[in-house]
Amino acid sequence: MRRALFLALALAAGGVQAATVKLRPQGAELTKAVQDALAALGTRELPVTLDSSGGPLLTVGGSGPTAAVPFNPDVVARTVTVRGERRIELNPQGPLPLAQAIRSALTDELGLTAWTPDAARTRLSGADLNGDGKIDLTDLALLMNNYGKTGATVGDLNQDRRVDDADLRLFAAQYKP
Question: Could you report the per-residue pLDDT of 92-145, keeping only the tens digit for each?
Fold first, then answer.
């Protein structure tokens, strides 16, 4: 499974309030482009925002030790780890304009099936417990398998360290048969 971007989900008893993507874009232009891209994923029920306090570094072109490594002209972005720091480097001469390159790289990074609000809701709501891009009966089975358990457990959608009726209600709000 792809390594997902660090996501902080703010959850309330009534449902998901927001999804925050942790990513450190370098420069004002790139930051604005990422904010615009994430805003396009959000809805009134689930706004998607940028938290630049952590997560992978996002750059246009290589930086530091990777600056001298040329991009394949057909590649939109590459993900590298330098001295333990994860970086997503967008190809400055790549096949897509910057806005599309950001969407393409973040679609992969977030594990979305498409760059749409529906795909974001499914993936970022927390109810897609097995990470397959769908909220289905398999996810419900995972939740029910942990029902009544406490601690850091799969199915703890409201982050209260127990899987209970509140998590089942959150799941039900996201599940669409």
Answer: 999 999 999 999 999 998 888 899 998 888 787 788 898 887 889 999 999 999
**Residue % of the chain over a pLDDT of 70:** 89
Is the same domain home to 50 and 99? yes
Total number of domains in the chain: 2
Which are the contacts of 177, defined by CB distance < 8 A and separation ≥ 6? Answer: none
Tell me how far CA of residue 104 lies from CA of 51, 91, 92, 95, 165, in angstroms: 19, 12, 14, 11, 37
Residue 2, number of CB atoms within 10 A of its CB? 10
pTM: 0.72
Over residues 67-93, the mean pLDDT reads 92
Could you list the beta-strand ranges (E) of the chain: 7-12, 15-22, 24-25, 48-51, 57-60, 77-82, 85-90
Contact 142, 163 (CB under 8 A): no
As a whole number of angstroms, the distance between CA 47 and CA 27 comes to 23
Pair (53, 86) in one structural domain = yes
At residue 65, φ and ψ (nearest 5 deg) are -60, -25
Q: What is the Cα–Cα distance from 115 to 104, expressed in whole angstroms?
A: 8
